[in-house]
Write a structure and sequence with these properties.
Blueprint (H helix, E strand, L loop, with lengths): L1 H14 L15 E7 L7 H4 L4 H15 L3 E7 L1 H10 L3 E4 L12 E7 L3 E10 L18 E9 L5 E8 L5 H20 L3 E7 L10 H6 L1 E2 H4 L2 E2 L16 E6 L3 E6 L15 E5 L1
Parallel strand pairs: 1-2, 7-8, 10-12
Antiparallel strand pairs: 1-13, 2-4, 3-4, 5-6, 6-7, 8-11, 9-11, 12-13
Length: 281
């Protein structure tokens, strides 16, 4: 009887492991992770008009505080936006560097995390190029492209997991392909260290494209794995465009819910992208 009970207990433990059979600690309460392209503030005032950052920034903060994710991967963050969010996003800490100089110039792959739930253990940024450890532009990319990662310790479970945040190039097909390969390689490296991993991204691509093959080999699409999932479009183009290019992938988590956040936060659009969120356990 003791042997049967032991085998049943092991079966329950294995079933609770989640994505890709990562060794696990006992399940804790779920938490939310968000990916959000906030639309850069240095875009033309004429082109963005009433949708310019100065008219949206308070609503962006209101949305983030209302939705209260444990961690957020943001794309298209200019340094003035980084400073504004650090000042006004109460209870959160933000990390990231500018892609054009490794300091404050150009888009920041920002990661913000809830300080009450998570502790930053380590972090870094690499460039999506042939020389990822130095400021550089890769292949046929129109811009410098980066990925920022953060090792985060959950105060509730004590476990350390990794968030990788990135934004693939909007013009260069080779840059998107090779950039995705680099992201998948980093995911594998963190997995080898025994970490669960979450990837937040504006990939400028839909998940049926061939470039996703290495990432599918390393992680799972939260949108597809979620028990309850939202298949809405994520890029809205201020109401003029519709595509599904914002994504969350994960390794080692159960995905309880995936949603596209299209609520009323006080302005017609908080960005030309809708935030996407996944509830993970």
């Amino acid at each position: 009887m003791k042997k049967i009970f032991h085998l049943l207990s092991m079966a329950v433990l294995v079933a609770a492991i989640g994505c890709n059979n990562t060794p696990t600690t006992p399940a804790t309460e779920p938490f939310r992770v968000m990916s959000f392209n906030i639309r850069m503030s240095d875009g033309s005032q004429q082109s963005d008009g009433e949708n310019h950052w100065q008219y949206r920034k308070e609503a962006v903060v209101d949305m983030l505080l209302e939705e209260h994710p444990a961690a957020i991967g943001m794309q298209e963050v200019c340094w003035e936006q980084m400073e504004y969010l650090r000042e006004h996003l109460t209870g959160y800490e933000g990390i990231g560097v500018g892609r054009d100089d490794g300091n404050k110039a150009g888009e920041v792959m920002a990661i913000f995390y809830d300080k009450e739930r998570l502790v930053l253990v380590d972090s870094g940024t690499f460039w999506l190029s042939e020389t990822p450890d130095t400021v550089s532009r890769g292949w046929d990319a129109a811009c410098h492209r980066t990925a920022t990662w953060a090792q985060l310790r959950d105060r509730k479970s004590g476990e350390v997991w990794v968030l990788i945040n990135t934004h693939l190039d909007h013009k260069g097909p080779q840059a998107r392909k090779e950039g995705m390969r680099l992201i998948a390689e980093r995911v594998e490296q963190f997995k080898e260290q025994g970490h669960r991993v979450v990837i937040t991204a504006d990939f400028n691509a839909t998940t049926d494209e061939e470039i996703f093959a290495p990432l599918y080999a390393a992680a799972e699409d939260a949108r597809k794995e979620a028990t309850a999932s939202d298949q809405s479009m994520t890029f809205n183009g201020w109401g003029k465009s519709h595509s599904q290019i914002d994504h969350i992938f994960c390794h080692g988590f159960e995905v309880e819910r995936f949603e596209v956040l299209k609520g009323d936060y006080g302005v017609p659009y908080i960005s030309d992208h809708y935030p996407v969120a996944a509830e993970l356990r």
